[in-house]
Amino acid sequence: MAEIHELRSRFAAALSRMYGREVPAYTTLVDVTEQVNADYMEANPDSAERFGTISRVTAERHGAIRVGTPAEMHDVAVLFAGFGMYPVGLYDLREATPPVPVVSTAFRPIDPDELARNPFRVFTSMLITADRRFFEPDLQRRLESFLARRRLFPDVLLSLARRAADDGGLDDQQAERFVSLATSVFELSGEPVDRAWYRELEQVSAVAADIGGVSSTHINHLTPRVLDIDELYARMSARGITMIDRIQGPPRWEGPEVLLRQTSFRALAEPRSFVESDGSITDGELRVRFGEVEARGIALTRSGRALYDELMEADPSNSKGLWNKSFPTSEDELEKRGMAYFTYHDGIREPIVYEDFLPKSAAGIFRSNLAAGGTGESDAVGAADLGGGARTTYDMGALADVIGREVHDPYELYRRQQEQSGESPL
User: Fold this and answer.
1) What b-and-e string marks burial along 15-31, b requiring 16 or more CB atoms within 10 Å of the CB?
2) For residue 8, how many other CB atoms are within 10 A of its CB?
3) Which of 35, 262, 337, 385 has the most CB atoms around its CB within 10 Å?
4) Are the C-beta atoms of 314 and 46 separated by less than 8 Å?
5) Is the peptide bond prior to 98 cis by the omega test (within 30 degrees of 0)?
6) Which of 332, 337, 327, 330 has its CA nearest to residue 349?
7) CA nearest 297: which of 348, 252, 359?
8) Rounded-to-integer distance, Cα 23 and Cα 264, Å
9) Which Pfam families match (predicted)?
10) Contact 127/93 with Cβ under 8 angstroms?
11) How far apart are CA 253 and CA 332, in angstroms?
12) DSSP per position, 396-426
């Protein structure tokens, strides 16, 4: 019997191998990440594992996928539940800069022990076709018709996912088939792309084209975790790999590591086949996939996050001077002001690792990659209101109705973990 956490580990490893074959620069990213982590461990043996053991950090990945309809999002939830991964949080990237016509959630383990075994997460975005800021009625109708004709997840895969979720795992033969089928769903399809249809959607949003301009889905990126992201950025650049312009998230400073810092190499021009208007097949390329890397810090409470967002708004460039003046400069101060989450065991305080995402950072990485080629979101129709239609408001309750199961509040998960750990001064 392969228990759910083992299924999740196998799935994450299989996706990593597959993505490495499809995007060789990702393998380079993983290699450099492991070298940086080993060097950091050697230089900082007493503190390197404060945010997780090196075995966890080495195995850790998050992925990103995109789907087009509520029905597809529902199937995603069924699939990931078979790996012990559940929807946490709501990210409305339509409100980001640049605006992206999706709402997202993160499927991940929610139990601390399961996170420690394997914390695989998949950031999953759903296209909002009814939002008139992006799609006028005729395009909405044609897009929804296109999406309704495709089926991303075969019945046998969803059946195995339900069995794994119900039984807490699968026997070895079923487990092998489940992981294999789930991995193959996210491979990049070789089916030719309708060039005119893809380009029409791309004029609205490059992300919309990536979702609704093709007949399948795929992994957009896989993200290893690194202990020193600034060193990683420098080493990747030294290898001649073009990185985006900066590291997203909090600055590198002398205070506590909080939330999430992330960067990526730029989206690569990958060869694809296209169907032209006359029915002929031609060769071309698309830029939709990239290699992201992340460094994780302490999970902040609502008040800590509010201060972080305020500083980001005041100074998007994230200067250390503003942080040194305005943000708690020690874990003691974070704790005293109730701005971060910790666990407490036998009088020892340990920070709770931030397991979730930052919408502005995600949008920043989208923007930086799209600027490298193809239509950028800032040029899209979605920046304006097309008028006369739905804006389509989403909250966690609305998303839960789509998915058919609870969308967990990340702050509540962190609070519960802190309370269950023992004594707390808060």
Assistant:
1) bbebbbeebebbebbbe
2) 25
3) 262
4) no
5) yes
6) 332
7) 252
8) 13
9) HGLS
10) no
11) 16
12) HHHHHHHHTSPPBPHHHHHHHHHHHTS----
277 token code pair: 């208007």
Phi, psi dihedral angles at 148 (to 5 degrees): -65, -25
Half-sphere exposure of 132 (CA within 13 A, CB side): 8
What pLDDT, in 10s, does the model give residues 60-80? 999 999 999 999 999 999 999
pLDDT in tens, 114-130: 998 999 999 999 999 99
Angle between helices 4-22 and 155-167 (to 10 degrees): 140
Residue 152: name the closest of 229, 227, 226, 73 by CA: 73
Q: Residue 110: what are its φ and ψ, rounded to 5°?
A: -115, -10
- The DSSP H or E segment spanning 285 is strand 281-286
**DSSP string of 309-372?**
HHHHHH-TT--HHHHHHHS--SHHHHHHTT-B-EEEETTEEEEPBP-S--HHHHHHHHHHHHTT
The CATH T-level fold of domain 2-420 is 2,3-Dihydroxybiphenyl 1,2-Dioxygenase; domain 1 (3.10.180)
Residue pLDDT, tens place only, 77-95: 999 999 999 999 999 999 8
Could you give the CA distance from residue 416 to residue 412 in angstroms, rounded to a whole number?
6
Rounded CA-CA distance 95/301 in Å is 22
**What are the sequence ranges of the domains in the chain?**
2-420
Contacts 24+ apart (CB under 8 A), 373-378: 373/267, 373/269, 373/287, 374/202, 374/206, 374/267, 374/286, 374/287, 375/202, 375/203, 375/205, 375/206, 375/209, 376/98, 376/206, 377/98, 377/99, 377/100, 377/205, 377/206, 377/207, 378/98
Tokens of 299: 């999970």
Query: For 7-45, how does the pLDDT look when each residue is reduced to its tens digit (9 = 90+)?
Result: 999 999 999 999 999 988 899 999 999 999 999 999 999
Conformational region of residue 338, where left means phi above 0, alpha means psi within -120 to 50, and beta covers everything else: left
Task: Kindly report, residue by residue over 214-246, the tens digit of the pLDDT.
Answer: 999 999 889 999 999 999 999 999 988 888 888
Give kind and range of the element (H or E) at residue 119. none
Which residue is listed with tokens 């420098």?
Answer: 234
Q: How far apart are CA 299 and CA 357, in angstroms?
A: 11
Strands 291-296 and 260-265: antiparallel
Cβ neighbours for 346, distance < 8 A, ≥ 6 positions apart: 422
- Rounded CA separation 370/303 (Å): 33
Q: How far apart are CA 67 and CA 127, in angstroms?
A: 6
Partners of residue 298 on adjacent β-strands: 258, 353
